[in-house]
Amino acid sequence: MLSQLFTLYGDVIPLKFTPMEANLTDLLKPFDNDWKQYNSKKPHIKRMGLSITSLDGLLTGHPDLDSVKEYNEIHGLKLDEPDFNKKTAVVNASPSLVNITSKFASLGRSHFIKFGAGGFFPYHRDGNFRLPAKSFRVFALVKGSNKSDFVWLQEDKRLELIERKWYAINTFKEHSVFSFSDDTMIAVLNIPVCEENINVIIDHMDIS
Q: In 3, 46, 166, 188, which residue has its Cα 20 to 30 A from 34's Cα atom?
């Protein structure tokens, strides 16, 4: 079902959901103190996260902004992306988030990531490498669409993403991101795989 989606429509699917707000930074001001280091075990990488969903609906950042794989290994758990399904107060700060999250039957681990200059994710693949996949990802590049600000490499190709627009992206394929600016931000939604959620994507594809 998920493999058919990306095989038929491509690895980058633009979507017709309400775009992220141009003034999102202002809308998120009440949460200025709730941004946490993304993956606290790698504080040298300039990435801050703000949870859209978490295990308990709170904004502690743990373990929802940590590496789930590493957290499971340390604590002997088997958490997966769909387990982080409680919406935080951050959702209601953004009409765009209210709109898109209300369309899906369920959500998984979702958050904003704010990069400092030099912040990055090295080449990697998302998922736990077990089939069938349990979730896929929808993104918005909130700020930083210029090449001088932010680069997303999908395998060997730079993605041309429209700022504030939502995309379903096949991040099971190798990809990397890098920020050249202190002013870049992305929104990441993990969407559990089920027929209803796949149909939401199909119904909202922005493909001519």
A: 166
